[in-house]
Design brief:
Layout: H1 2-14, H2 35-49, H3 51-65, E1 75-79, H4 86-89, E2 94-97, E3 106-107, E4 120-126, H5 135-145, E5 146-157, H6 161-169, H7 199-205, E6 216-225, H8 227-230, H9 246-256, H10 260-263, E7 264-273
Parallel strand pairs: 1-2, 1-4, 2-3, 4-5
Antiparallel strand pairs: 5-7, 6-7
Helix pairs in contact: 1-2
Bound molecules: S-adenosylmethionine.
């Protein structure tokens, strides 16, 4: 949390935003959307200096690639690409984000996409869904731009007994487990910074909201162990193990993935419009 406050302080200084001097991060207060840009810049530095992170993410992108259907008409578009990693694995994908960084193809907001109706084959969101305050408003827009057989691929944190500890105590974003999730289709105003790491777990696995998501078929839903990722410290912490142990941890993860409620730390959900 302290780190989040410091990062927030540097963002507000950079963009000359004024917040109360004793700004406490809480759901009740508005954090400016530019917080994302500060995190993108930090993530870029970590990505370049941490080969272990790149190797772990290569495995995550492989999982995503198994759900890219080359026969579907239209473009693959990533929403909230951040530092634009998907392009390394799928060069033809269009990368997008809210902020005009030089490595991106398009600057746009996931709630209001600059694409004609039914022109996209896939939408990919990697660690973006839990930043959408109004998931149904996004799903309505996703349905508009996707081809009728198109796919929406979400890669997200998964909150299990073990990963709860990691995400709650070692990651700066809130889990949001006790908070209601917005179900209206209205666009969120203003577009402030929002994070609730537990949203995919709650919506797609714990099924806290009946018959959700309306009008979508869940083609695939999987939660898997990723201690190799959690113990690597991700983008924000130093690694707790040497890169040479990645293979061993990968084997442990494969074993523990059989008990997702206890050990999973990530999930992959694939949806198609119904
Ligand atoms: C945690 S970062 C993930 C970045 C990247 N996908 C990755 O995995 O490294 C979340 C990203 O979502 C973007 N984002 C948040 N809200 C968005 C919105 N409404 N539309 C498009 N992008 C959004 C942020 O700018 C940020 O780059």
């Amino acid at each position: 949390m302290e780190k989040f406050r410091r990062s927030l302080a540097s963002t507000t200084a950079k963009f000359r935003l004024r917040l109360p001097t004793d700004f406490p991060y809480s759901a009740a207060l508005v954090v400016p959307i530019e917080q994302h840009q500060a995190e993108i810049q930090r993530n870029l530095r970590r990505w370049q200096s941490k080969p272990l992170l790149r190797e772990i993410y290569a495995g995550f992108y492989e999982r995503i690639m198994t759900f890219i259907e080359p026969g579907l008409p239209g473009c693959v578009v990533e929403i909230g690409s951040g530092i634009g990693n998907l392009k390394g694995r799928l060069p033809k994908a269009l990368t997008t984000d809210l902020f005009p960084n030089p490595w991106l193809d398009i600057v746009c907001d996931g709630y209001e996409l600059p694409f004609q109706s039914q022109t996209l084959s896939h939408l990919v969101l990697f660690d973006v869904f839990h930043h959408l305050r109004a998931p149904n408003a996004f799903l309505r827009e996703a349905r508009r731009v996707l081809h009728p057989q198109g796919r929406l691929i979400l890669f997200e944190p998964y909150v299990s007994a073990c990963s709860y500890l990691a995400y709650r105590f070692f990651h700066h974003e809130p889990l949001g487990l006790g908070q209601p999730i917005e179900t209206a289709e209205a666009l969120p105003r203003p577009r402030d910074y929002y994070a609730a790491q537990g949203n995919a777990t709650r919506l797609f696995f714990r099924l806290e909201y009946d018959a959700w998501p309306h009008g979508w078929t869940v083609l695939h839903r999987e939660a898997f162990s990723c201690f190799s990722y959690l113990l690597s410290g991700g983008y924000s912490k130093p690694s707790l193990y040497p890169a040479a142990c990645l293979g061993l941890l990968g084997r442990v993860d494969r074993l523990l993935s059989g008990l997702p409620r206890l050990f999973a730390g990530r999930c992959l959900v694939v949806l198609s419009p119904r």
